[in-house]
Design a protein that fits this description.
The structure holds 2 protein chains of 2 kinds. Chain A is built from 20 helices and 2 strands. Chain A is mainly alpha-helical. The longest helix of chain A has 32 residues, at 316-347. Chain A is globular and about 70 Å long. Chain A starts with a helix and ends with a helix. Among the domains of chain B are: 1-140; 332-525, no CATH class; 531-584; 586-618. Helix content of chain B is 75%, strand content 3%. Chain B has a two-stranded antiparallel sheet with strand order 1-2. The chains are: A mainly alpha, B mainly alpha. Chain B: Residues 140-422 form the NADH:quinone oxidoreductase/Mrp antiporter transmembrane domain.
Amino acid sequence: MILSTLIWFPILGAIALALVPSRYLKWAALILSGSILLGSLWIAYQFDITQPLIQFREDLPWLATLGLNYQLGVDGLSLPLIILNTLLTWIAIYSSPEATERPRLFYGLVLLISGAVSGAFLAQNLLLFFLFYEIELVPFYLLIAIWGSEKKSYAAMKFLLYTAVSGALIFVAFVGLVWLQGADSFAYTALAGNTLPLWQQLILLAFVLIGFGIKIPLVPLHTWLPDTYVAASAPIAMLLGGVLAKLGTYGIFRFGLGLFPEAWGTLAPGLATWATVSVLYGATVAIAQKDIKRMVAYSSVGHMGYILLGGAALTELSLVGAVAQMFAHGLILAILFHLVGMVEAKVGTRELDVLNGLMNPLRGLPLVSALLVLGGMASAGIPGLVGFVSEFLVFQGSYAVFPLQTLLCVVGTGLTAVYFVILLNRTCFGKLDNAIADFPKVEWRERVPALILSLTILFLGLQPTWLVRWSEASTHAMVAVLPPVTQVTTLAQVLDRE
Amino acid sequence: MTQFLLHTVWLIPCYAFVGAIASGLWSPALIRQTGPRPAGYLNLLMTLLAFVHSLSVFVQVWQQPAEQWSVSWLQVAGLDLTLSLEISAVTVGATLLVTGLNLLAQTYAIGYLEMDWGWSRFFAMLALFEAGMCSLVLCNSLFFAYIVLEILTLGTYLIVGTWYNQSLVVTGARDAFLTKRVGDLFLLMGVLAIYPLAGTWDFDQLGQWAATAQVNPTVATLVGLALLAGPMGKCAQFPLHLWLDEAMEGPIPSTVLRNSVVVATGAWVLIKLEPVLALSPVVLTAMITIGAITAVGGTLIAIAQIDIKRALSYSVSTFMGLVFIAVGTGQTEAALLLVLSHAIAQALLVMSTGSIVLNSITQDLTQLGGLWRRRPISGISYLVGVAGLIGFPPLGGFWALLELADGLWATQPALIAVLLLVNGLTAFSMTREFGLIFAGSPSQMTERSPENFWLVTLPMMVLLGFTLHLPLILQSLGLLPHWADLNKDMALLLLWSSVTGIGIGAVVYVGHSIPKPIQLPWKRLQDLFAFDLYTPQLYRASIVGVVDKASRLTDWFDRQVVDGVVNFVGWVSLFSGQALKYSNSGQGQFYILTIAVGLTTIALSLGWSFVWPYLLTP
């Protein structure tokens, strides 16, 4: 029952917001999203971390003739993402400005997204997943098209078209799987042990990979991302980068790796290379950006590559690392977008060439600068912060299988440091121009989201057990049913080959 | 009580860490009520606690066998990340050195930065360094050593950037961070690569593994080189030495620590990793070569500098180069002794020159002069620092260099020549600075330059006394050789090279007979050393240029090609959709025309290959 609450409470709440007097709208939205956050934490409390299987199962017959049943459940792969989703929803609502236009619609759409995304993470039926996956598309389109900044309609349309294509590809893969397998239902458990020949698996997996690859996004399917993230307002960019991208990585793990393990193993070397290209490409393009929001957006492209690398290597450690990276990246991207949004709101520009000296304790934005250092360094993988733990686990887990790709991804973290140093040097360091340094005061309530996120980043960086314990049993089970990746190479073998 | 202190030895890094976090309260909240100073006092108190604690533990662990403790940090999917600590005389002695120097440097900073408002930031960073270095020496694991080194890299960025509104500081902080990060990432690659081979990251177990390991030589070399790169960055070795020079833009009290103990973190890890690095002869040769190049090159560059701080920073690279040589030839004890004597002497030198810079408002050697009568305490400190640094009996540096030379005699006698040359050149370089600062007649900048007040002078004098007493301490700890075992020839050679260097330096720079400034006869050579072998240009032409070009190119590719294709597809479908919409007027002719035009186009494009030969032939 509790899982359904996570989905339907916000969705019904979104409708109920229509009845709330406009003065109390934000409060109502905060209470709604806060209660689902507490609900997801309660699930985490009740969750048995030693149990690899689906827990809190819910199963209601719905359209049995179509094979569509209302089947929900949570395991170690989805639980961290559920918590991430509810946390970021609350933070996005909290950090949205008081003067938001049409607040009723805005908060309603955000809550709708939260419910739909939770539904997608919880669905144990492929068709049900697909429904939730598509439901979240329209609210996002509206949120970008109505509350976005410059070029918003272009960005929103681009987002819509890309994601629609992604949905179509995934739908083809799902229907194809059921059809080829001759199954009578879209239930995940019925399809997981499919016995299709390898070539059919490969074709279906290709659809899944490209479909979710658009959502993640992976290079070269990523060009909707910078436009969309930049056009979206800060709270929406948080949700886009923090949660929506995770729908892609979750999908690739659950429906790519989980349904087609054999084909996944065959493609693994290619996937690792694809991941490496994404990492290096995202980081290199980010260095050339002149707009800090765009820079952060491109950093996201690079960081998604680590997740794919962890998935491709298929070791227990790399998978744990990849799930941890999904969570860590969500937190880090959220704090970065929040701070960048704050800089834009106070200073009025996002241009690197104009910004300067925000560290100034009296006239600048000292706390924002300090937290920007923290967020940037977490993204660059400095130890003590959450980004390091997840990246390190991915690297250590992948090194034994794909040494060269892993080392190149380490180079990627170096390039990440390069653009974040550029960002920090230009925005926080330097001399503040007194002529323009007349910024509005930063209120305490504007600081709260960043403080919550930075404390979480710090806590999980120092106590990573809390980050990885959820997914260990599930990833162990995932690896146990897999054939080992055949192209196991060590550095010595790579050298011998040449 | 003593047992309690021994069992809570892990608190030593925590004191400073607590101080660092508490300093945040003054930035900028409490500063309005109390001013920035309490942050400094608080950190000083914390450092004092840490020092007293280290001292009491050191007394207990002296001549006791090393103890290993372990604390579980993270266990996941078969990976066991256990933080293991080593409590021994060496490690606790190192914390004693770190906290002691911090105590002096922080007192010095309270005096030096009297007028500054950034205290909470600055002292928090000093405390972060203290905490980091104490944890580094206590921890017995390569993985956690890497974590500490990486955090200290970030610390360097922030502490160099203390005065962030000056443009040179901003670029200096950036370069320091990125150069050290390059070394760190290679170290990370080494950390990743060694675990599948050795199955452990604990230093002592790595040593045991290395004793019997059968590793593919190429792999051993690559892993060794990656592991070597981390200390290279930290110890400012060629070609990663540039950052130390640029880091001189930071406040001098942080330089005291950086030049003495922060660079030594790299040496510490190097010494710990010696058994692993020794698996590959190539790595050892590389280590010795890098050390020798940096040692000789560093002194030559130092001689050509006109900035006091920069001249000193290159001598730091020089001595770390000697440490590289020592570790490369397997003499870890000599390396440790060298690190110790260098740390104390170098800290004294920086404090002395810092006190000159503070009152003379310039760090340009050519603008100084004639300070000996006005600044006798600083002058004596400087001289004692020089004597403690180079091979000058009976101070610390002499014994360290002697032990190193003694060991080289048996293994690689050719390196003794390098050692003597470096020692002589350093003696010359230091005497040159002494001459330019203290000898000659007063200049405009030094006319009014009295000794500083006690907060700056007292720590310097304490350190002066400590430098002088170092041989006695070493003697009482039994670290000095007996007179009978002393290699007297070597000792004489060392003394001779020091005296020659000092003598020539004194004649040229302290005496009045030779007019200044002195230039090398060949301008090109002078510039080569003065501009640091053109390393900044080298960087700009190589790695920086490549990354810059690559990022521009990829960005162009991303905008024009990847996004271009997408937009083109979108535009075409949109355009045809729009066109269709407008022509959809209900008139049948348009449909027919469209279909006719479409069919013709398709037919033409298909049949083109058949048609075009006829068109071309007349």
